[in-house]
Amino acid sequence: MTRPRRGGRAPRSAVAALVVAVVVTVLTAPPGVAGTAARTDAATATGAPAPVAWRACVEPDLAALGLQCADVAVPRDHRRPHGRRLTLAVARRPADGPAGQRLGSLVVQPGGPGIPGRSTAGMLAARLAPDVLARYDVVGVDPRGVGGSMPRLSCDPAQLAPVQPDPVPAGPAQEAAMLAGAAGYARECAAAHGDLLAHLSSADAARDLEVVRRALGERTLHLAGYGYGAYVAALYATLHPRTVGRLVLDSSLRPDGDLYQHYLDQSRDFDVRAHEFFAWAARHDGTYGLGGTEGEVAAAYHALRARTAQAPVDGVVGPWELEATFLNLGWETAFWPILGQVLADAAVHGDTTLLRLVHQDFGAHPDDTSYAAYTAAQCTDARWSRDWRRWRRDAAATHAQAPFATWNNVWYVAPCVAWPVKARPVAVHGGRVPALVVHATHDAGMRLSGGLAMHAAFPASRLVLSDGGREHSVSLVRGDACVDPVVVRYLVDGALPADASGPGADVTCPAGPEPVPWPAAALSGPDAAGARSHAVEPAPTGPPDAPTAPGVATPWARARG
User: Fold this and answer.
1) C-alpha angle with apex 69: 67 to 72, nearest 5 degrees?
2) Pairwise CA distance, residues 406 & 349, whole Å
3) CB neighbours (10 Å) of residue 528?
4) Which residue has the higher pLDDT, 257 or 33?
5) Where are the extended beta strands (E) located within 156-251?
6) Nearest 5°: CA angle at 256, between 255 and 259?
7) Which residues contact residue 411 at a Cβ distance below 8 angstroms, ignoring those fewer than 6 apart?
8) 141 has which bridge partners?
9) How far apart are CA 296 and CA 284, in angstroms?
10) 276, 263, 214: which is closest to 242 by C-alpha?
11) Which neighbouring-strand residues pair with 510?
């Protein structure tokens, strides 16, 4: 999944003219899913939601995007559709084409868990092709407990407040204290939210989307999911195969839900990506002055980490916070130039101004809501080992190979070892749903093997690969001249690429170029501090599942997923 911004795995941060009537293809539910889908559909049908009443959004960031807002009531427990209700905050950018061209609502599912969907949808709509905007209302939903949805989740606002202990335990006493803190957070969540905690899974989020579909008055729901959002979209197609329309699964989480193994794999992949970043910075030694070899740059980073352990920057950025900030280099190479400058400023010039700004923008948690939602979903979606000895053994072995972020990842999900709610995993099975699966071959946040497994889980799907790509989230957010036309054609007229009839991709696209350092003029002179703080303020370039660079107010939060 994509972890909410704390270091990201999050920060703040997707036709030819058709006849008026949309022909809906009724798909047969896949084996093992038909009963579940039928029961879910029957349950939601008995509690028909009120039609959506749109109004102008009053939140400044949503109003600036020209969005309309509404609230949709959903069952707290979908097994009891007439019981207590929760409120979801929904926003849309209405289709702007002729009425006869409209195909329906395209729901943008961002990463997370714990990332608001309303702003994400508005920001993606600003980049979508005119043919897509003419045919779809672009819709975003703040998941239950997140953003404008009520009630909002919070377990302990101080849980991730700086300065956190060094994630690498100094000894048994520190390890025991950190484990106690993680278990304490699980207890605080139970105390704060009671039986609601049992209804915050990804399957609950998918079932919420079905209620939203009916409130919108749509016969089908079209989805574009990114990272963890692709997993939720795939669950929707599993539970509601008869009402899913176009389905784009970009940079998807592994469909088997083995999150324990996912985070171990991710830690290894992030370590590889960190060394690729160090090598890139070395190739630009003339700009950064960190050294001309990967080893020299790596040494500069580790020396900075050691200094923050001795004396946290401004009493705010210690080794945990530094790692949380630099973890973003694994999600997007677009972060490399700014993180290279952060490292150069601090390690070479002793200037931590930019480090403080960047940490605040996409290394810190503004509140506890994203982490509470993230933890509640992660711990309920998968069966986690309750044996801390296994966690310690696997963490130590992985850290020995990949020290960049292993323990940081482990502690982030450690509340799951003591989570008070029984896991309720739901297997993804796409049956005959004709999805479009998109993935970069070198995605460190979500391994390519997860995308290949998602492609296999949807036998009627087609696979588009960014060959050599390192980015997490590929389509409709970067202006990719190869990937985007394939996705746009699918959204506009339903056309999937030809089946290559083999184990590989149906479409292979070249990766984009490496990033280049920022111009020196933007980062020097009498106004350097102000320039640095706003250096990337113009149009953000990150995907709906990724953080944007400092200075950009955006909800695209990175999660650890």
Assistant:
1) 145
2) 29
3) 16
4) 257
5) 221-226, 244-250
6) 100
7) 167, 178, 182
8) 90
9) 12
10) 214
11) 467
Sign of the C-alpha dihedral computed for residues 62, 67, 69 and 75 taken in this order: negative
Q: For residues 4 and 556, what is the distance between their CA atoms, to the nearest angstrom?
A: 9
| Lookup: tokens for 363 | 């290394």
Rounded to whole angstroms, how far apart are CA atoms 262 and 243? 30
Are the C-beta atoms of 428 and 235 separated by less than 8 Å? yes
470/512 Cα distance (integer angstroms): 9
Compute φ and ψ for 72, nearest 5 degrees.
-130, 125
The DSSP call for residue 464 is E
Q: What is the CA radius of gyration of the chain?
A: 22
Q: 418-456 b/e with 16+ CB inside 10 Å = b?
A: bbebeeebbebbbbebbbbbbbbebbbbbbbebbbbbbe
DSSP state, residue 527 = T
- What is the rounded CA–CA span in Å between residue 290 and residue 300? 7
Q: Token pair for residue 320?
A: 């945990």
Rounded Cα distance between 88 and 215, Å, is: 12
pLDDT tens for each residue of 460-517: 999 999 999 999 999 999 999 999 999 999 999 999 999 886 667 999 999 999 999 9
* 220 Cα distance to chain centroid: 24
What pTM did the predictor assign? 0.88
N-term to C-term CA, the chain: 2
Q: From CA 46, how far away is CA 214, in angstroms rounded?
A: 12
